[in-house]
Structure formats: structure tokens, C-alpha cells
Amino acid sequence: MNVVLSTRNYEKEYQGKLCSPREAASVVKSGDHLCFPLGVGEPTLLVRALAARKRELEGVVVNQQHHITPDYFTEDSVPHIKVNAWFTSHVSREAVQKGWADFVPNHFSEVPRLLREYWPVDVAGTVVSPMDEHGFFTCSLSVGYTMEAVKKAGKVVVQVNPQAPRTHGNCHIHISEVDHIIECDEPLQELKIPEISPVEEAIGGYLAEMIPDGSTLQLGWGGVPNAVCKALLRKKDLGIHTELISNGIVDLMIAGAVNNSRKTINRGKSLGTFALGTKRVFEFMNENPMIEMHPVDYVNDPYVIGQIDNMVAINATIQVDLLGQCCSESFGHLQWSGTGGQADFARGANRSRGGKAFICTAATAKNGTVSCIVPTLAPSASVTTSKNDVDHVVTEFGVAKLRGQTARQRAINLINVAHPDFRGELMEAARKMNRI
Description:
The chain is an alpha/beta fold. Belongs to the acetyl-CoA hydrolase/transferase family.
């Protein structure tokens, strides 16, 4: 759709498009393809209203990453509404495993292009912040692929929530692009901040030692990123270029450790494409010009990331084999999450002058009974980040440098950061594979 700017009365236009969730859901027809944003950008009232009329529909497809509303993830929904999950969450995981929903492998950076070239969008829906005097909403905390979906959609539904922060950056939707408006004044879903374990604190300490002042950071979610942020509070002139804005990043900005003064591009700004965390994050981001939200095909583009000197990417994995292949999204064939931006940022950091990419894992799982460093990945496990893209692997026992190393040296370096209880059997397995 084309944005139409004029001196017209935007409030009158707003009122003319205002409707109930049920009325908005009625625009969906059998066979339609829908697209919703990830996380707190999901228009929950529209989703619930759609699920309530599912038996009136046949063959509706919902494309989305990281769902938060469970209403149509049931076996009896399949003939009516089928979900393509681009990244599974606690809501969609069981449905994907049982075949009630489908998983779509992807790099997060490529989703807008996939929308343009492969996936139809009949109806797009999203949470937005309230409209300003010029007729603009913002995508608030979930920019990602949202604007691409809005551009392509035949019909656009926005769920206006006054509790959604108004964000800066390339994240605006004009009322002329909108067909239907739902109002919803409800708290945004918060995520509890995970406690930092001793293992995660040790990993965070190793990482902090390898991150100099002036570095630009990308951090994922979980205990390790929180531990890293805690360890970096006394650093200087850090920058942020990350897909996820979280509590740890807000802490660094408030402490003054982040000022983005040395960034090669987007200097002076912390960049993200979506946000998760507590209300503290949402309130800090509201009308904050120090943070800009941009589409994921910019933020996660390895070529953009590679233009940032001293880029540091920090992500987590489930399992690493002795060549350095990382499975970060599945337990064998059980799809747990998705690739997200892990490979995007590993490749981007490797292109960066002075850049570093870290993949982090506890040395063991299941109360110390299973090694997370293994001779070979589990059968049917997904390779999230390839051996060619892995730079460093970090456990509570140290840092293994892999980039530029031979297969033999990689195996030795990885065994050295494995749990001591498993080093013997890893050495034996490596010998049998002629790795050492």
C-alpha cells in the first residue's frame, strides 16, 4: 500500500476504521494466508477472535515466528487454521512435533525477502503504539518482518495498545496503510529474568575478559547474556547492534557502559529489531531516541554487521561436535526453537574488523550426566551454525578457539573446555575418528 499524507483529519479516519476484534477477524476468508509478528507484536485479541470462528473457515494458513497465544494450536484446528512456525516457542512446540503445525527453516535476516518472494499475505495483523498527530503508529517492540508483511498484505489490522511503547527508527505504519483498528489496553507479556547460575557466571567472566572497551555487542536471551551484561557494567564506550533488546542491555545503557560513541555505523544509537523482558524494558524504550528499531533484513544482515568494527556476537547452543558444528535449536529431531539470528551474527562478526563470535554452552546437561561437547551431533539434530562459521566456543571451563584451526586442533581445543569427567571418552572417540 502507498502512504497517503495530507492535511486530512486523521482522528476521523481512525474512528472510521475502528472495530471490534470479532469484526476484524471477519475479514479472514477460507484459504487466506495470514502473517503476524513475533512475541509481543502478536495481536492477541485478533488471534483469539480468529480462533473463536475457526469452524467457519477452511485452509487458513498463519505464518509467524515465536507465537504467544495458544488458541489454535490444537489437533481440531488443523483443517481450519494451520500454522507455519518460523521459530517454535512453548506455545507451538508440541503442535509442530505432532504435525498439527509445520516448521519453516530460515535465517531470521531472510524472512522479509521470503515474504516478498515466496509467501502470500492476504491479512497482516500487528500490535502498534497509539497514533500520533501525523497519522503514524509504530511497530513498537516487534519490528522484525512486520513492515514487510504490512506492505504485502491485502488487508491490514492493527491492535492499538497504549501500553505499547512508541519507538524510534524505521518502524512506522501510517493510518492510510491500515484497514481495521482494534483497541486493546492490556499489559504486554513480560518474561521473567532467569537467575544467573554459577556456570553462567563463569562463562560471563570469560567473555567479559575478551570484550574490550569500544566493542559493539549482540546478545541473545538467557542466563549467559545476563551474566555477560553484569560483568560489563564497568566497561566504556560499548555499542549495541542486536536483534534483541533485553533487560541486560537496558542495564548497560543506564550504567553508562553503552553510549555507542565508537560504532562505525549508526553511531550514537542502540539498534534492535525486537524486544523481550520486563516492563522496565518497555518503559525505558518509550520515546527513547537512543534506541532505534529497524527491520530484521537490516539489523541481521551479515554484510551490515560486518561493517561494524569490533563487533562481538554472543549466542547459546545445545550441543557442539568435535568439528565445531553447533546444534542450537533441536534435541535430535524435536524442534525446540529455530535458527533465529545466530548464524547471521556469527557470519557478520567474522566479517567485522576486530570482530569476534562466541557460542556458549554449559559443559554438561541433565545434572552433569550428559556432555554438551560430543564426538558427533545427535541423529537428526539440526546444524544451526556450521563449522565454517564458528569462531569461539565457551564453557565454564574456558574458551576454545576454532576459527582458522585444523580439524585436529579444533578437537583438542574443544576437549580442553569439556567437563573433565568426559574428556577421556571424547579423546578416545576423537582417536577412532582420526581427529587426534
